[in-house]
């Protein structure tokens, strides 16, 4: 009897088209919402990373200032000492014979 009932009901192509269109719209809506959520997550992550960069830059500046004030001036890791004058080297001393 069920077999006869399903055969006797007419299938309307317009109804099937409406159902397919509704399904497409629902799928597109879910995809759009998913992409919007992902975009929000990325914006939040970007803001956090930008804040981290600012914090690290400030920290680096403070450490650089501290290093400049606490260590002697260096050139490529080699300390620079003031040049000795001729008198300190003993070059201008006269020796009496």
Task: Kindly list the characteristics that best describe this protein.
two-stranded antiparallel sheet; single chain; 3 helices; rod-shaped; 97 residues; 71% helix; mainly alpha
Structural account:
The structure is a single chain. Strand 1 (74-75) and strand 2 form a beta hairpin. 71% of the residues lie in helices and 4% in strands. The termini are far apart. The chain has helices at 2-8, 13-70, 86-89, and strands at residues 74-75, 78-79. The relative contact order is 0.04. The protein has a domain at 12-67.
Instruction: State the helicity in percent bands.
Output: over 70%
Summarize the biggest pleated sheet.
Answer: 2 strands, antiparallel
Q: Assess the beta-strand content as a share of residues.
A: under 5%
Spatial gap, N to C terminus: 141 Å
Mean pLDDT: 80
Rg from Cα: 41 Å
Q: Globular, elongated, flat, extended or rod-shaped: what is the shape?
A: rod-shaped
> How many β-strands, per DSSP?
2
Strand line-up in the sheet with most strands: 1-2
Structural category is mainly alpha
Give the count of helical stretches: 3
């Amino acid at each position: 009897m069920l077999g006869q009932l399903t055969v006797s009901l007419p299938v309307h192509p317009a109804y099937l088209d409406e159902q397919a269109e509704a399904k497409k719209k629902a799928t597109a809506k879910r995809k759009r919402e998913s992409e919007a959520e992902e975009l929000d997550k990325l914006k939040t992550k970007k803001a956090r990373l930008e804040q981290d960069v600012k914090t690290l830059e400030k920290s680096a500046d403070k450490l650089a200032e501290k290093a400049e004030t606490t260590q002697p001036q260096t050139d490529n890791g080699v300390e620079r000492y003031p040049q000795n004058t001729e008198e300190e080297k003993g070059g201008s001393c006269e020796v009496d014979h």
